[in-house]
Amino acid sequence: MRVKAPIKIDKKTKNLAKRLNGGEIAVINHKDIDEVAANSLVEGKVRAVINADMSISGRYPNKGPNILSKKNIPIVDNVGKEIFEKLKEGDIVEIVDNKIYYQSELIAEGEFLDESKIKQKLKLCYDNLSNELDNFIENTIEYAKKEKGFILGELEIPKIKTDFKDKHALVVVRGQNYKEDLSTLISYIEEVKPVLIGVDGGGDALLEFGYTPDMIVGDMDSISDECLRKCKEIVVHAYPDGRAPGLKRIEELGLEAVVFPAPGTSEDIAMLTAYEYGAKLIVALGTHSNMIDFLEKGRKGMASTFLVRLKIGSKLIDAKGVNLLYRSKLKIKYIWGLILAALFPVCIVAYLSPSIQQMIRLMQLKLKLLIEF
After folding, report:
1. Would you say the C-alpha torsion 190, 330, 176, 210 has a positive or negative sign?
2. Backbone angles phi, psi at 50, to 5 degrees
């Protein structure tokens, strides 16, 4: 395997993905490459990936490396964090198997992850999954005890201006398959007109489809300035002690925001806010709802998510994967039916038209003359 190209370099994959133009080598520091990160690299049309960390650590079966492999994007794994000191954005490097060269000098060496190695590592992940599940359950229970204020009304919900009363609320997270699911819900959005809530990058997902978010909720680390300026209200998720690192960015943009100190995830407080302010129905799209999702986000448990879903109960509909629920197929007989239905009124109007009737008589006369001769 040999690849030579300029690099885009960033320790955070989600930041790097925004700058990809196609044809570059992505240099990242991403332990356990998740599905969302892998898809962002695929969409950025990278030629190869150099990872300073382990793409598959063995903790759980993460899907990212397999996605990259299937798209023929080679991965040179675990090359060491020193590579960030040796390279800068735009440098042209050459990958030869598991070795990395810059200006003909060997600067790093790692492990080339081909399909067989990925399968081997994932098998070890599945073998370890039972232990990881035990730890995950214990952490979830432990944090649930600490965060029970979510359902006991002890958490103070800040005042907001967005009107949820007796309306549907659509909470969009830029998670797995969000584009396919959002495409499926277009008719719902157009007809019902739900309150649109973007959780961080979920706001940009709505913009992609031509919708302006009514509210953005999150720590503001993965959303564009454009979306922040266009949305109607911003809620910054702060730590329980009140610290809100994301607020600085909002202030630098000259915008206003509501600060919501709370444990748990931003998508949890988005759903909780909609519920507390009287939403009739809450539709969650792209949200994290299982152990693998949470492990990919680096969380050791899902206490807040469990508690919030326990509280909002029947008002919540999870639209994740809705694109797989039903896919209609356009049949030929339906096409012919539409054509005949469209032609019928045209034929009636044409037959009743004096000019058309005269033309028909003329054609009949010509046909009669041809038969006689």
Report:
1. negative
2. -110, 120
Residue 330 tokens, joined: 């356009």
- Which pair of tokens denotes residue 141? 């229970």
Grouping H, G, I as helix, E, B as strand and the rest as coil, residue 285 is: strand
For residue 151, the tally of other CB atoms under 10 A from its CB is 17
Distance between alpha carbon 294 and the CA centroid of its chain, in Å?
A: 15
Q: How many CB atoms lie within 10 A of CB 44?
A: 19
**Bridge pairing between strands 2-9 and 48-51:** unpaired
What's the first-to-final CA gap in the chain, in angstroms?
80
Q: Half-sphere exposure (CA, 13 Å, Cβ side) for 217?
A: 28
**How high is the pLDDT of residue 199?**
94
Please name which of 11, 3, 46, 40 lies closest in space to residue 26, comparing C-alpha atoms. 46
Segment-wise mean pLDDT, segments of 10 residues, the chain, 373 residues: 94 90 95 90 95 91 92 96 94 95 94 93 83 74 73 83 95 84 90 95 93 95 92 93 92 94 87 93 81 60 72 82 56 60 62 64 65 58
* Residue among 145, 153, 169, 280 at smallest CA distance from 217: 169
Angle at 292 between CA 273 and CA 47, to 5 degrees: 105
Q: What is the pLDDT of residues 213-222, one digit of tens each?
A: 999 999 998 8
Q: pLDDT by residue (tens digit) across 327-343? A: 555 556 655 665 666 66
Full DSSP string of 138-195: HHHHHHHHHTTHHHHT-SPPPP-----TT-EEEEEE--TTHHHHHHHTHHHHHHH-PE
Q: Please give the Cα distance from 371 to 311 (Å, whole number).
A: 84
Q: Please, what is the angle between helix 303-312 and helix 266-276, to 10°?
A: 20
Q: How far apart are CA 196 and CA 214, in angstroms?
A: 5
**How crowded is residue 136: how many other Cβ atoms within 10 Å of its Cβ?**
20
Query: 166 with 277: CB under 8 angstroms?
Result: no
Which amino acid does the sequence have at 160?
I
Domains of the chain: 2-120 (3.20.19.10), 151-324 (3.40.50), 332-372 (no CATH)
